[in-house]
Amino acid sequence: MNNDKSLKELPIFSSLTDDEINAVSEISNAQTVFTDELVFSEGEQGSVLYVILRGSVKIYTKITENVDKTLVTLRKGGLFGEMAVISEDYRSATARAVEETELISINQKDFRNLLDKNPAVGKKLLEFIVKVLAERLKNTTDLYRQAVDWGISISGILELNYNQLISQKQKIIIDLNSGKNVSGILLKAEKHTSGLELLLKTDADKFVVIPYAAISSISFGAGAAKQAE
Fold this sequence. Notes:
The chain is an alpha+beta fold. It has helices at 4-8, 18-27, 83-86, 108-117, 119-149, 162-168, 222-228, and strands at 29-33, 38-40, 45-46, 48-54, 57-64, 67-74, 79-80, 89-90, 94-97, 101-107, 171-176, 181-192, 195-202, 207-211, 215-220. It has two domains: 4-149, Jelly Rolls, CATH 2.60.120; 162-228, SH3 type barrels. Strands 14-13-12-11-15 form a five-stranded antiparallel sheet. It has a four-stranded antiparallel sheet with strand order 1-10-4-7. A four-stranded antiparallel sheet has the order 2-9-5-6, with helices on one face. The two termini are 38 Å apart.
């Protein structure tokens, strides 16, 4: 990658000198991903770190077969997949482009070679990554606490406690298999011979009944409220 100025604008590289930026530029690759395109999937083995140069990426994990939980949406300067350059392991979440996005990637082998050849650069990058990981750990703890609050069973088959969602009167977003989504307050969850149906009061004060089979994912809690604004 030759655009050193672009690298300097990103927080992870902002403390580097011009020579250090050049060293990072030599091992960096640029790629473009398009709207809704996967960068990587949860459970895949990973060996590449990504930084967003332009656009946005949603990081999410699967709670149940039909329910996803968005952990964070990252924009310019956002860093993800960072554990892959420290310890090659399986991805703990899925990364998907929200819009056309330009990424900078560094693979584990090149990153380790950089640490060996230029320890000063490595120290700066690792300090930034550790700071990011510490913040992610705090957020993960908060998300776990939210999961308990929302009545998600973590043993056996995971399933939502719809009664708690109803009593809390919190906004949820239901993504449908058709690609559309509906946001509002869950009023009732009823089981019928045909399956579970959810009664939702939408933001436009309309009432809709949604068959469970039509749902691809449900977002809830603080993240859903922000997303729906």
